[in-house]
Amino acid sequence: MQRRMVRKLTLKKLLNQLAPHPSPKPSLEQYTIPADLAAEILYLAAYTYNAIIGKAILDLGCGTGRLAIGAAFLGAKQAIGVDIDTTAIRTAQRNAEKAKMQEKTQWVASDIHTIRGKFDTILQNPPFGVQKRKADTKFLESALKLGNIVFSLHKRGKVTTSSFLIKFITTHGGKIKAIHPMRMAIPYMFYFHRKQRHEFPVDLYVIEK
Ligand SMILES: C[S@@+](CC[C@H](N)C(=O)[O-])C[C@H]1O[C@@H](n2cnc3c(N)ncnc32)[C@H](O)[C@@H]1O
How far apart are CA 123 and CA 144, in angstroms? Predict the structure, then answer.
């Protein structure tokens, strides 16, 4: 277990070395979280909320595994990543080996709705629900069933945080501890993108059951 505080730059460098998805699908919104944003979230979860070190972590919609691998690197007891896409899961497995985190990580190719059990901490960067309506709230529903504390990243509305999401979370038994405003930048990935780089505001919801 990591006992000393890891430098954010060290974590970011590790995450930057991990391979992206070789053939991302727009229908699954397979954007890889940028290394600096992943490091910011993991740092908050570990050192502000004490929700990583020694904990059992579940990364829902893990993609190429950045959040789960980063959590393992910071000292999680175990980190499990789940994704519906087998190519993402194979890439995450190889990434965990590259980061020498294979003993602390496990990878499950499955729909998140099949997952049962109880975990200390859920980390998720779910589809924003742009390609498939309600994809984001389905993730929130699963996360609230499976975790004691949930870190969930969502696209912010044009002006403010989403009153719809706040209501959804509270009516599903979640208590919002904080909403951290952040920014996400993604490179050109899909045919419908109009810019080389798209930067937009996101909110990290920290939710307790
Ligand atoms: C926005 S990507 C995030 C990937 C990764 N967590 C990251 O932050 O780099 C969302 C991920 O959710 C996965 N996904 C979408 N629907 C899913 C479902 N029903 N069950 C499991 N995974 C799903 C996609 O394949 C994709 O990898």
Answer: 11
